[in-house]
Write a structure and sequence with these properties.
- The structure is a single chain.
- About 10% of the residues lie in helices and about 40% in strands.
- The protein is mostly beta strands.
- A hairpin with a 4-residue loop joins strand 12 and strand 13.
- It is globular, with a radius of gyration of 27 Å.
Length: about 650
């Protein structure tokens, strides 16, 4: 149900006085009017954990982060439950919350907005709730992380910071200075003496947990303002008062972050700038300079601290085969002076020779280009005529073969963002329909992969960071979604969340089936660049999925595409974003077995397919296996110094690569 709580007409209902405010969480399938609820419960902090379109089952993955980590006194569950399975999920939420002493209000599904709000307020009042007050004051040892510019209990993410005269100084994205401790329990205090050498929309910030930031100097159009970002602050980016009033270029300032009970307060030079409700874990505390030169003179953490475990190995030990200079393996698919050509996907038809490639004229967006090869990728046609509205594609196009239960073959092509749109061809790509919306929902790199499941349905996977799924425009966290087609790819169900992570940013799924056919594996890109890649597994034809599992560094990268060689080994191609790798930013591949993936082993070896000349802007690869065992993998990249990216394919057999190891 959509609970638009328009309750300004309600007379505020008193909540018993207390030294601490009640915490009320609204957990449901759409957003709520927080101000309206607080007008009816004047002594309550109301937190919105609604997500448009969520079912009770979808919400299971975010229950701990969005609800339990707030330690609410009352929780309004306002989902529709249309099936016994959904009722079971709601019963689970209620049981866990009640075990923690939380009042659960199950909103009547068919109530209108006014009646629903009256129910919530009256049940909270009738329960005569007193706010939980678990605070015992900030106690425990003080861990000196940095003292007078000397690192004591420091862990770096990225490059180590330089020593200055009584301070450490860092600069650049991804180069974070972190405490080597986390905090148990609620009460804690972080203190630091800092300095921004220049205040100029730097986006410099303090990390508070894995996915939340308190920022000193907002980047972009909101520069020189405090900002918050992440789930601790309710998701998205929010801007606050001007920075210049408290932080000036080159002048040190004092930061204090203190949690007493559930309330976290952020103070600059003793004045509270922002507060939030968060009772969850704080395992990541430190500083990110981003575009600033940020000095840290002193930095300490007080509370029930504990040493953090060693992070996963950032690099790999298996050998690398380099074929990037072997131009006889390379075929130029498309190249245009001054024009960015990027992000291709391919499909190989059943004759083993006809191959179609699609890609945008631009970085991740732009008019869709289509080409065809009739000789297995050795030569390519001119750009083909496509429907007029393909020129308005706003995202990476993806192309897939599907076959319905009656044996009817189709090609389908997707273009993402909001709404996701699809085109269909029923003559092997000779003619196509225009792009048309598949539903009132959107996503990024849709559909990154499509797979047939045991009953003849198809599942398609994509991700979103909150901006496009319901067209909110606000980032609210990375989620991987699954949608299902029961009619051979013509229509698709409303998507459900199948993977997310409280700390890592999971996206760009790539699917492969186990050799025995009994399991599906999805490789996932990790977009915060703080972790290795991840994988999830399903043993019931995509009905349920495992929790995300970290991959070895050897398989860490972006937009994985996988195929089996004739000898049963697995070849996976992707963009290399491994944290420590001699081929970082290049187009690479991995050779191993499916069992290696399941067991978390490094595999047999890596392959450098081509040397990308600009950052990590390459490699959304298509990958096809020809009848003779030749792999043809196709992608874009900055292959020539000073030129825009263009599309190239590389051809090889695994035995040819094996020979280079000897």
């Amino acid at each position: 149900m959509s609970l638009l709580l328009a309750v300004l007409a309600l007379a505020p209902l008193a909540v018993p006085s207390s030294s601490e405010r009640l915490v009320v969480v609204a957990f449901g399938g759409s957003r709520v009017d927080v101000e309206a609820i607080e007008s009816a419960l004047p002594r309550a902090d109301v937190l919105d954990a609604g997500l448009a379109g969520d079912t009770p089952a979808d919400a299971r993955r975010r229950f701990e982060r969005d609800v339990l980590h707030r330690a609410p006194d009352a929780c309004a569950l306002w989902f529709d439950a249309d099936t016994p399975e959904q009722e079971e999920h709601l019963a689970y939420y209620a049981r866990i919350l009640e075990e923690r002493g939380c009042l659960v209000v199950r909103v009547t599904p068919d109530a209108d907005a006014h009646d629903a709000m009256t129910q919530v307020v009256e049940e909270i009042q009738r329960a005569n709730l007193r706010p939980a007050n678990p605070s015992s004051g900030v106690r425990g040892d003080v861990v000196e992380v940095v003292t007078g510019g000397e690192p004591r209990a420091v862990r770096y993410s990225g490059d180590a910071w330089e020593r200055g005269d009584g301070y450490l100084v860092g600069t650049g994205r991804g180069n974070e200075l972190l405490a080597d401790v986390g905090v148990h329990g609620l009460d804690f205090r972080l203190r630091a003496r800092l300095c921004l050498e220049k205040v100029d929309a730097t986006a410099a910030a303090c990390a508070v947990g894995f996915d939340s930031w308190f920022g000193f100097d907002s980047g972009g159009g909101g520069g020189k303002r405090f900002y918050t970002q992440g789930w601790l602050f309710g998701g998205g980016v929010r801007l606050y008062g001007p920075t210049e009033e408290r932080i000036r270029s080159g002048e040190p300032f004092d930061l204090e972050i203190e949690r007493v009970g559930r309330r976290v307060s952020f103070r600059v030079d003793g004045e509270t700038v922002r507060s939030a409700i968060w009772a969850g874990p704080l395992e990541r505390l430190g500083f990110a300079p981003h575009r600033a030169r940020l000095r840290v003179y002193d930095f300490s953490v007080q509370g029930r601290t504990y040493a953090l475990p060693e992070p996963a190995a950032p690099g790999y030990t298996i050998p690398v085969v380099d074929v990037s200079a072997e131009v006889d393996r390379q075929v130029v698919v498309d190249r245009e002076p001054g024009q960015y050509l990027g992000h291709p996907t391919t499909v190989l038809l059943e004759d083993g020779k006809t191959m179609i490639a699609v890609y945008p004229k631009g970085h991740g967006k732009g008019a869709i280009v289509m080409k065809r090869s009739t000789d297995a990728g050795l030569t390519w046609s001119e750009r083909l005529s496509v429907p007029e509205n393909w020129a308005g594609s706003r995202e990476v196009p993806t192309i897939h073969r599907v076959v319905d239960r009656e044996g009817k073959k189709r090609l389908i092509l997707f273009s993402g963002l909001y709404p996701v749109r699809m085109a269909v061809s029923e003559d092997d790509g000779l003619t196509w329909s225009p792009l048309s919306p598949v539903g009132e929902w959107g996503g990024i790199v849709a559909m990154g992969c499509v797979a047939r499941v045991g009953d003849g349905d198809y599942v398609a996977l994509f991700h979103d960071d909150g901006r496009f799924f319901v067209n909110s425009g606000e980032r609210s966290g990375f989620r991987v979604y699954q949608t299902r087609s029961t009619d051979g790819g013509l229509t698709w169900s409303f998507p459900r969340v199948i993977a997310e992570h409280p700390h890592a940013h999971l996206c760009e799924p790539g699917i492969v089936r186990s050799p025995d056919g009994n399991q599906l594996c999805v490789f996932l890109r990790e977009n915060s660049r703080r972790f290795n890649g991840f994988a999830i597994f399903s043993d019931d034809e995509a009905e349920t999925w495992s929790e995300p599992r970290a991959l070895p560094a050897a398989l860490t990268g972006d937009r994985h595409t996988a195929r089996y060689a004739p000898d049963g080994r697995l070849f996976v191609t992707f963009r290399d974003t491994t944290r420590e790798s001699a081929t970082w930013g290049d187009w690479v591949g991995w050779v191993g077995t499916y069992d290696d993936v399941v067991a978390g082993r490094e595999g047999q070896y890596r392959v450098r397919l081509m040397d990308n000349k600009v950052r990590a802007d390459c490699a959304y690869p298509g990958l096809e296996l020809l009848p003779d065992g030749t792999f043809v993998t196709t992608t874009y990249g900055h292959w020539t110094e000073g030129e825009e990216p263009y599309v190239v394919s590389v051809r090889f057999k695994l035995e040819e690569l094996d020979a280079k190891l000897r």
